[in-house]
Amino acid sequence: MDDPECFEEYLLLSQVHHFNVFNRSEICEKTQPLHRSDFYKISLIKGRGILQVRDELIEINGNVLIFFNPTVPYFWQTLAEETPSYYCYFDNQFQTKLLNKDYFQKSALFTSSMNPIFSLTDEQAEDVRRIFESMLLEINSEYHYRYDIIATYLQLLLQKAYKFQNISEKSSANKPAAIRLTSKFLNMLENQFPIDSLEHSLKLKTPNDFANELSIHVNHLNYVIKEVTSKSTSEIIASRVLTEAKALLNHSNFDISEIAYLLGFEYPSNFITFFKRHTKETPKSFRKNSFSNIQNI
User: Which domains does the chain have, with CATH numbers?
Assistant: First the structure.
């Protein structure tokens, strides 16, 4: 970024109060991608650009509300002049202030495998903009309990997003049981991450593991997951394990054998084969190139 001190000062404020909110005009023109961090992020953007989520490039055009899970690398590149955009960051400690955590746990903030992008109508975007403006007004006040009020606005924002999600999923309204099972599976998968200690290796690694934990037959689990997500259970598990593998290679000091153990591979060679099959390079070469890859994002 052009002025790294600007972003560092912002993060310091977030670390002190566990929450911050701003619009694009108040901060540096560019911000660094957070990659793996302690912060959740919600953005309201109106404009045209490219959003990179993990290794996927998504073209955005119009009003979008985006939820960023802290374990998921992302980057936003503007392709046209933007109208004012809004962002808020908060950490795990701040989300404990939420009176109803269900909406947080049902969102892409909590479950990184969910679609994090909501396309909004102008009316919906205006609703969300007013919430962000209320947050900005409150955070700049002198009221001692202003962060409790902000938590209420955050709750409202999460509920609005959940409402938008339900509207966009009307075509799946006749599959509540399948969606509930898929949600349980995705949450169970996500709850195993991030992995940051050799004392906590991956326990649920295969469709059978999840089926046993859910007390259902693996064939039923596979059928439901495929029906709802259009992906196989194994594909979803592999994708999440691969994301964690990349995060550990980029942002930890664990050696490759330790990472293989953490991710549930019996032998390092099995992990290397898995990683190379999905990325066309070895974990060693990926780690070696990671710094230059981040610089080029």
Answer: 4-168 (2.60.120.280), 176-296 (1.10.10.60)
